[in-house]
Amino acid sequence: MLDMHVHSTYSDGSATIDDIARKAKELGLKAVAVVDHSVELYFGLTEAKAKQRQIEIDNASSLYGVKIYSGIECSIDGAGEIILPDFDFEFVIASIHEFVYGRNYYERILRCIEKNEIDVIGHPFSKLFGFDDNIPEMDRKLVDMAEQLGIAIELNSSHRSPSDSFLELCRDRKLIYSIGSDAHDLSKIGDVGWSVEKAKRYMTRAKLFSP
Ligand SMILES: [Zn+2]
Ligand SMILES: [Zn+2]
């Protein structure tokens, strides 16, 4: 089991890198990914913080003998853009963190994946941001694009997204999917049961994301 979406004290998480590594070791996780928020949020990961975090990741990784990926979660703005600090991350998650609905939601994501080098679409259609109006024709378009471009769809256990109606369209498609708890504290790390269950059911021909 792995957890590809965890926040640390380098953004709005309460667990340190050392805490995360120790917990991953205790749980026997194959890998854990620290993906702090980017600089569009005032507490986000600046270039300087990313460098410092990398030192801690390397140390904790060898101390505990666990694989820790160095990632980032960027918010997708109204134009489909993201802001990436100047740092060589192992992968990039792009997510919508605003109350956006209907076609606007899809257009943001589609613009983002066409224009930017991102690896994972984070918690698509999260109900925590009020999304409750999937458009089947746009769902299909997004699945097509993700398949074509090789961009992973995240199954996020905190947001419990995407919904079953969307996941139904993922069946038998050659997609990539990622699994994440979106933990902001130690207790939630590795809490990915929801994602694993949905993956088994719907990601029948998909591959698990690996940076
Ligand atoms: Zn997010
Ligand atoms: Zn997150």
The end-to-end distance, rounded to whole angstroms, is 15 Å
What percentage of amino acids are in beta strands? 15-25%
Total strand count, please? 8
**Total discrete domains:** 1
**Superfamily (CATH H level) name:** Metal-dependent hydrolases
Write down the overall mean pLDDT. 97
Rg of Cα set: 16 Å
CATH topology, which one? TIM Barrel
CATH architect. name: Alpha-Beta Barrel
Helix content: 25-40%
The total of helices stands at 6
Q: Give the helices and strands as they follow along the chain.
A: EHEHEEHEHEHEHE
Low-confidence stretches: none
Largest sheet: 8 strands, parallel
Spatial strand sequence of the major β-sheet: 1-2-3-4-5-6-7-8
Structural class: alpha/beta
CATH uppermost class: Alpha Beta
Set down the secondary structure blueprint.
Layout: E1 2-6, H1 17-27, E2 31-37, H2 47-64, E3 67-75, E4 91-95, H3 102-115, E5 120-121, H4 136-149, E6 152-156, H5 164-168, E7 176-180, H6 193-202, E8 207-208
Parallel strand pairs: 1-2, 2-3, 3-4, 4-5, 5-6, 6-7, 7-8
Helix pairs in contact: 1-2, 3-4
The structure holds zinc ion (2 copies).
